[in-house]
Amino acid sequence: MKKSRTKLPLFQGILPVKRSQVPSDIAAGITLAALAMPEVMGYAKIAGAPVIAGLYTMLVPMLLFAIFGSSRHLVAGADSATAAILFAGLSTMATPASAQWMAYAGALAFMSAGLLLMARVIRIGFLADFLSRTVLVGFLTGVGVQVAMGEVPGMLGLQAHGRSLAGMLANAVRQINHASVYDLAVAVLALLTIVVTGKISKTIPGALIAVIGSIAVSSMFHLSGHGVHVLGVVPGGLPSIAFPQIHWKWALIEKLLPTAFSMSVVILAQSAATSRAYAARHNERFSQNADLVGLGLANIGAGLSGAFIVNGSPTKTQMVEMAGGMSQLSQITASGIVFMALLFLTAPLSYMPGAVLSTVVFLIGLELIDIRGMRGILFERPWEFGVAIITAATVIFAGVGQGIVAAMFLSIVAHTRHGYRPKNAVLKMDENKRFKPVPVSSREQLSPGLMVYRFTHSMYYANTEQLSREVRGLAEGARPGLHWFCIDAGAIDDVDFSAAEELRLIAADLKGRGIRLILAGVSEHVREELDRSRLTLLIGKDSYYITVLDVLKAFQPEAGMKK
């Protein structure tokens, strides 16, 4: 007797391994480490944490998500949105960068992990399904604009002040007289290096060359002494693995829970949006529920290793794609590089010009702006282009979290719009004796006295008015008068309470006109719904037919009798 084997959902973002892709994935991981290490140190400042805690987010948390997540592209790491929420939530509870602050940050990571795992248990990963491709294009485009424009002050050597993008840019304009020519020159050189190498070959890691080159030049020529802003001293060493040193009292949990909940919502929505966008771009599948487990475990790792909350990061995900990475092997490589850097290489990072980091992130933002996708939507679906624009604008002017909520809302609106006014039809017989759908306004009859009305969407409360108006209008205006009115239900997969009530009213109205209501192509599920709603009792079991052809065959003898 064979023993049953339980398949553990591990390394879904890596397997199956494509040998030809491994070198590119490793190179992308090295690039991710080089570009993201300074970035996450910046996020640490946003979160009020020591800069070393930013590097810790790329160690244990990133490794855990690479093992347990399902997306081949999503990178879990520190993120500006959750870092800002963290700072706002703790600003009145402790001193930034203090031991108490970091203990609370660790507790928030644990609580957020618990909420994410709870979301997995109750299976709300389906929320990702409410993000249409249209809004995903708009979402990533908005993120790209926000990220790129937010780095302009850094490229000019200015401090980025302001809570919103508009406020940040306005403040940069006011400070323009204080812009550093040296920082701008460094930014331009980094920009040219990345762009030119990219033109030569997509496989050349231009961003990595720019980062390493700038560190070398800054170290040799002491650029900080010439007015160039550099990152400064970065302490080294591996994190200690321990639980946050706090007393888990209900009063403290009550204070932290709103912040943990807010961050969890942002993680769920932003990670789902990013995973879905890249899965769609590469025609791949991913499991949002598996990603919830990966993100939950990643945040447990963050809480244990002295880091702060991590999220699915659009910018880091784009870093990997720009460098040619196509699986979580890139993230495992990056985690290994960070491990070595924490032991031996934190000193060189202190020489990196801040303008180089801003330039790299600026270009990443530009890559996220999907001009081709937006043009395609405009050409094919002008109305949906408006949805994409609104989503992008919400991200740019209100923030990523609000943009995600807007994206989900607009996706639902777009879906509801399609079902609210379905393109229904009536069937006629063409010259080849085949059924042909034609507009309802044509009032065509399949056979004199028999009209077949095809409803092309589920029946629910929002489209019952259209159902009632079209059926009654067809029955009243039929010439010659009708004996049978058939609803072709092949496209109907659900009938809600309101629609069932309307069908009963329609059946009674038609009966009063001497017209029999017939249904064809009803699925087993819908038939059960109609049985429960007592429509079957009203029209009779013999009013159901498998196909429209069966209806036509049954009607013809009866039509002859009526003549």
Q: How would you describe this structure to a colleague?
A:
With 563 residues, the protein is mainly α. The chain has 2 domains: 19-414, no CATH class; 425-562, 2-Layer Sandwich (Transcription Regulator spoIIAA), CATH 3.30.750. Helices cover 61% and strands 6% of the residues. It has helices spanning 22-46, 51-56, 60-68, 80-90, 99-121, 133-150, 152-155, 165-174, 181-200, 206-221, 250-281, 288-304, 314-322, 329-349, 354-368, 371-380, 382-398, 400-420, 464-477, 497-512, 524-532, 535-539, 548-562, and strands spanning 75-77, 311-313, 425-429, 435-439, 450-454, 484-488, 516-520, 544-545. A 6-stranded mixed beta sheet has the order 4-3-5-6-7-8. Helix 20 (497-512) links the parallel strand 6 and strand 7 (516-520). Residues 1-6 have low confidence and may be disordered.
